[in-house]
Amino acid sequence: MYERFVLSLYVLSGLSTVFIWLAWRKRTDPGGTPMVVFYLALAVGAVAYARDITATTLGTQLLYRQIATVAQGTVAIAWLYAALQYANFDRSLTRRVVGVLSLDPLLLTVGFLLPGVTFFRTPPTGTTGSLLHAQATQLTPLFLLHMGTILVTALAGTLVLIQLFLRSRHLYRTQAAAVLVAALTPWTIALSQQYFLQIPEDATIFAWGISGVAMTAGLYTFKTLDPVPAAQSTIVETMGDGTVVLDMDGRISDINPAAEALLNDGDAPVVGRHIGAVVDGWEALHEGESGHRDWEELSLTVDGDERFLEVETTSFTDRFDDEVGTLVVLRDITDRKRREQRLEQYKLIFDSVTEPVYVLDDDGRILRYNDPFADLVGCDGTALVGEPITVVLGPEPAATDGGFSDRMETTIRTDSGAEVPCELDLAPVALDDGATGRVGIIRDISRRKAIESELAEATERLETLVEASPLAIIAHDTEGVVDVWNPAAESLFGWSADEVRGSTLPIVPAERERELLDHHDRVQSGEPLTGWETELRCKDGQRVPAAVSAAPIRDGDGEVVGTVAIIADISERKARQRQLERQNERLEEFASLVSHDLRNPLQVASGHLALAKTADGDAAAHIEDAEAALDRMETLIEDTLSLAKQGRDIGSTERTPLATLAERAWANVTTEGGSLTLAEPPTVDCDPDRVVELLENLFSNAITHGRPAGGDPVTVTVGPLDGGFYVADDGSGIPDDEADLVFESGFTTEDAGTGLGLDIVQTIADAHGWTVDVTGSEHGGARFEFTGVESR
């Protein structure tokens, strides 16, 4: 008897191993993973139970009995876990229940490993068979607690499976039968063994195996056990329409994801709430016959967005044909409603808009157009229907990235052949057949185009005037960013238009920035500026005198948006002004000479002539003094005329070797034994005659004032400088306290001198734009340096 029972246990273990492989393949399905644990524990328990029966020592029996006990608890818990998953119980609840029950095998394992914890009493000597069976009347309270846990677990699983059977038997008969077998087998075998079968060992392990096979057959052979976990998971959960299950009180008991997305407006759960609290206007729906409501429309707001739904409700009954609830199907028709609304809007446009409007199909053919469009193209209201839009205008822009061009300009060809410039707005439109067409709105812009053409011509003329203007014209915004910079501005300041446009105005010197800002504020306030004279900066750092006139630029609303300035180069005017000032000074000097310096020699000459008339023997001496006075008068007159002449502009300039001019000048003066040295002087751009006069005065000054009484003849040297030239002598030089006075008109250290020679030198240098300075030469004499000279 024991041999056949043990053999059956090993066969059960082998079959369980095969079913482990089957369950592992379906481990991702509901109940799959618990069934893997179930069969693994069943296989281990069957082997341990067989070894328990066949062991010959008490220690071995005790070890395998402990393993079989832990496996027994694991089998029961895994069986319940699989049943809960099959029946689609709440996942969080399922996990909590299984977690609590799993403490039983865990505590058993810990208790077996700890010394002093007793689950079995020592059996009588000579006992054979299973340790558990032999001690059926010797179980400890701890072991009885374990058995109670298994009993509760088995009872709970049975109730779950019976409930599942009742729900699904009228829909899925084969699966329902498998569920019923799985639920009742453990109890049937246990009761049969207790009251009918006289089996010396516990056969409930085979009951668990049969129950597990039935559950596996129901799940894996027939794919599903119940419409709730299967149909809901595979059909309802994935269908596009929302489904809601209501109980008899109108409370939501189940809902699929599509419906939850439509109804869940916030964090509060939908399940358990009354449908009227979730869906506004629910009570207004009209119920049809036999508890069926036809499709009705309903609007609700979800996350602040209005949605439109079609609602169909159907009552459903249980197996006794008693009504137990309502199935609600929700279909989101928001897109359709919005398309219908857009169509209504387009129809309203056709009925009310006064501008030409047309509608095209997805092939670009005209479906409809309004009377203003017909008037524009010269056709009646139906002649163009079905024609491509290209019969009256060029190709429209194609859709790009799901959209259309907002606005474009095109030309409408009328029936008479005329071409009318128009502005076209395009937008996609949903057509009745679900295709996407286009609606176009046209505006006649003939008048605007004519005005734009006139403005373009006027702008072109103004731009031509600005470009051709000899005066610099600059325009900038209120922040000083340049927008207009004409060629005259380029020529005057040195910056090209590309360098300046888009940047702040660069021509204002730092020292005049405050002054310019004051004038800028006045212009921005609307006050024009006329003839303001200032100095502006050029690209090379030079300053140019300029006259600035400015006025504000206003936009269409009269707001000041910038400034336009006209700038004139007044360098020549300033030079002429300075020349006139110098000429006036010369005239004043001339008047002074005439009234003072010439009067003295005249008085001397008159006096000596009068004495000569009355003198007896000294008449000749008086006459000589009178002649000397007259000679001085002649010199004064010549120098004065020369000085006055230099007040005029210089003549034409030419590049002339300075050495040639120096030789000419040296030949025109009385050298008194002096010598001229030319130290490779440069070629200069000058008025040759005036420069000869300049050199003559310098040479005469060196010979007359540079040679001390009884001293050696003077040597004069003309040589180059960086940017000019110098004239130096080796005479007695000029005292430091007189260096700043030598160029003043009338200053002289000689009684016979006129004091005009060096004044003439400075006047000629100024006329050429040169700068002249006096210093000491390396030989102790005077050295006159001329800079700012164009030379080579």
TrEMBL record:
Residues 593-792 form the Histidine kinase domain. The lineage of its organism: Archaea, Methanobacteriati, Methanobacteriota, Stenosarchaea group, Halobacteria. It catalyses: ATP + protein L-histidine = ADP + protein N-phospho-L-histidine. This is histidine kinase. Keywords: Kinase, Membrane, Phosphoprotein, Transferase, Transmembrane, Transmembrane helix. The keyword Plastid does not apply. The chain crosses the membrane at residues 6-24, 31-50, 62-84, 96-120, 140-166, 178-197. Gene3D superfamilies: 1.10.287.130, Histidine kinase-like ATPase, C-terminal domain, PAS domain. Residues 228-273, 342-396, 458-527 form the PAS domain. Its EC number is 2.7.13.3. It is an enzyme of class 2 (transferase). Residues 293-345, 406-457, 530-582 form the PAC domain. CDD domains: HATPase (cd00075), HisKA (cd00082), PAS (cd00130).
